[in-house]
Design goal:
globular, 9-stranded mixed sheet, Aminopeptidase, alpha+beta, 9 strands, 171 residues, binds coenzyme A
Length: 171
């Protein structure tokens, strides 16, 4: 259903954790992603976290955890997109796309150079993510859902992608 939205996208606030949990639990049909976000936030692992607010209610959420790319020579920074969730009542109204585009623009402005996502290529390719761009990186997630997007001309070109510890508990 197409809704008439009064949409604002902005960084999450500390008092919004419970409302974000509610949206993620509903979007994913279970607590795993909401628990992941709480753990990442508590550990200081989030580079950026945005909410989409419609008529004073949180309708969508996107988190961008810090990743490390390890090579025998050095360790460099990257970012993950995970998780992204939109309240079921608000899906298919452009909110997931708006959150993704806003986050990528902010990360680029901040000087981030490389972003990974694990998800449906049909959805994420529209933002510039590609399976090809992720192929040179080693990860437990590598495969048909593991994509990358370069935000700069000089991203880390290969290496082992290390997700923060809270991802270890995600099945
Ligand atoms: C996936 C999700 C974040 C998309 O957000 P959304 O606000 O509903 O998406 P948008 O309205 O911005 O959709 C943009 C496009 O993606 C398509 N799309 C939406 N969800 C999709 C999905 N799961 N797979 C493939 N395409 C999808 C839409 O049809 C739309 O296509 P169009 O522009 O050609 O019409 C949302 O549906 C959601 O929260 N789903 C449950 C949780 C989830 O699966 N999160 C993603 C984990 S990787």
């Amino acid at each position: 259903m197409t809704l008439s939205l009064q949409l604002t996208i902005r960084p999450e606030r500390p008092d919004e954790a419970a409302a974000i949990r509610t949206v993620l639990d509903a979007a994913f049909g279970g607590p795993a992603e909401g628990e992941l976000v709480d753990s990442l936030r508590a550990a200081g692992d989030l580079v950026l976290a945005l909410v989409a607010v419609d008529n004073d209610a949180i309708a969508g959420y996107i988190a961008w955890p810090r990743l490390l790319i390890e090579t025998p020579r050095d360790v460099r920074n990257a970012v993950a997109l995970a998780p992204l969730g939109v309240a079921p009542s608000h899906q298919r109204n452009g909110i997931g796309s708006a959150l993704t585009r806003a986050g990528l623009a902010q990360l680029k402005e901040n000087g981030e150079r490389l972003v990974f996502v694990v998800g449906d290529p049909l959805f994420y390719q529209r933002f510039g993510f590609s399976l090809e761009a992720a192929r040179a990186y080693v990860s437990d997630y590598a495969g048909e859902y593991f994509m990358a997007l370069r935000l700069a001309d000089d991203p880390p070109e290969q290496g082992l992608v290390r997700y923060p510890t809270p991802f270890d508990g995600l099945s």
